[in-house]
Design a protein that fits this description.
The chain has two domains: 160 residues, Lyase, Ornithine Decarboxylase, Chain A, domain 1, CATH 2.40.37.10; 209 residues, TIM Barrel. It starts with a strand and ends with a helix. The radius of gyration is 23 Å and the shape is elongated. Helix 5 packs across helix 6 and helix 8 packs parallel to helix 9. It has 410 residues and is an alpha/beta fold. The strands form four sheets. Strands 4, 13, 14, 15, 17, 18, 20, 21 and 22 form a nine-stranded mixed beta sheet that branches. It is built from twelve helices and 22 strands.
């Protein structure tokens, strides 16, 4: 269910209009719907009730503390890839035994922090890293649970820059190496290697890549457990697209039931975009419009430093005016930001509502990988973030001040 809709041609987010939200505020800013976030998490989590499942929200998609606290209240765990992400998860109230520490390049500080704070498991992505975790655990006097992240060499038919499951990608350990690790646990006396983990990419709309992956990994888990009975957990990662996919959550769960021993295995799920994407919008203001020989430019005050995804991934985000009219400009139109880069383009469209300077427009579905990827490029501040709940508006991150921007410079 979407909480972003036109009512009498006035765009509203939950129970309040965009214009009311923006009144008296500097643009651009991010705004999130608490009801959308809550509904998304519950819908996915409820589809897994037949499994022994832990749903760990991927903090790299959105790590705002208020969003994390909202999900913690729904009993979410966290999937983190850095010490600071884990610190934020803990500050939001997430239980350490519901936090998975992932990432291909963990530092000694990352690993030490994860072990010291009793995270659920660390997902290792190389033999070198396994040795490193084992040494740090030994010094800490602890036995650390570890998952082996497998690269199943599966193409997920997604954008190349968010593909993670092919041998051409940097992630994971081969199936052959994984089998050898489980055959030689004596090499890692301070590790409990009891989990298989994988993540084949993001924004996956077709069930086939998951089916191929589950079949391959399911066979490996069954083989290892028939010999050593070492694996008790399967971390299936994330990657389910929140939009226009050709399968349901039930279809996805049924594949897991088909290929894994669900009576004796626990499962970890790591959704990010699925939960947060359509819960967020980016509100911006039209600065100028101009026509150049058959092409129109709409220049808005949000830039690629605020929202990197279109420039980085060629990501498509629908743009909507805060007031809808029947008047359109049927001309090739680029909606662009103010950054001094030709790639600072949010959308190219052949037909767009007539807009004028000072009018608000919003970018849809930016709750994931929007704010977390923002930067100070062109010496622009990190922008304000809000959350709406019905007709209530709450500031959940203040606009960065100039003093904060420069305070660590010498």
């Amino acid at each position: 269910m979407s909480f972003l809709n036109y009512e009498n041609d006035i765009l509203k987010f939950e129970d309040i209009s965009i214009r009311e939200i923006a009144e008296g505020r500097a643009t651009p800013f991010y705004c999130y719907s608490k009801q959308t976030l809550t509904n998304n998490f519950r819908e996915f989590s409820d589809s897994l009730t037949s499994l022994d499942a832990t749903v760990c929200f991927s903090l790299k998609s959105n790590s705002n503390l208020t969003i994390l606290k909202t999900l913690t209240e729904l009993e979410a765990g966290g999937d983190v890839v850095s010490e600071w992400e884990m610190r934020k998860a803990l500050q939001a109230g997430m239980k350490p035994n519901k936090i998975v520490f992932s990432g291909i390049g963990k530092t000694a500080s990352d690993i030490q922090f994860a072990i010291s704070n009793n995270c659920l498991q660390i997902n290792a992505e190389s033999l070198d890293e396994l040795d490193h975790i084992n040494r740090i655990a030994s010094v800490s006097g602890k036995i650390q649970k570890v998952g082996i992240r497998i690269n199943p060499d599966i193409q997920s038919e997604t954008h190349k820059k968010i593909s993670t499951g092919s041998l051409e990608d940097k992630f994971g350990i081969s199936i052959e190496q994984t089998y050898e690790i489980f055959q030689n646990p004596q090499n890692y006396p301070n590790l409990e290697i009891s989990s298989i983990a994988f993540h084949i990419g993001s924004n996956i709309k077709d069930l086939t890549p998951f089916q191929r992956t589950f079949e391959i990994i399911g066979e490996l888990v069954a083989k290892i457990n028939s010999e050593t009975k070492k694996i008790n957990t399967v971390d299936v990662g994330g990657g389910i697209s929140p939009e226009k996919r050709n399968f349901t959550f039930e279809d996805y769960r049924n594949l897991i039931v088909k290929y894994f021993d669900t009576e004796n295995l626990k499962f970890i799920f790591e959704p990010g975009r699925l939960i947060a994407a359509n819960a967020g919008i980016l509100v911006s203001k039209v600065l100028y419009t101009k026509n150049i020989t058959g092409k129109k430019f709409v220049i808005i005050d949000a830039g690629m430093n605020d929202m990197m995804r279109p420039a980085l991934y060629d990501a498509h985000h629908e743009i909507m005016p805060d007031v809808r009219t029947s008047e359109y400009d049927e001309i090739n139109t680029d909606i662009v930001g103010p950054i001094c880069e030709s790639s600072d383009v949010f959308l190219n469209i052949q037909k767009f509502n007539k807009v004028k300077s000072g009018q608000y427009v919003i970018l849809k579905d930016v709750g994931a990988y929007g704010s977390t990827m923002s930067s100070n490029y062109n010496a622009r501040p990190l922008i304000e973030e809000l959350m709406v709940d019905g007709s209530q508006i709450r500031i959940i991150r203040k606009t960065q001040s100039y003093e904060d921007f420069i305070k660590n410079e010498i």
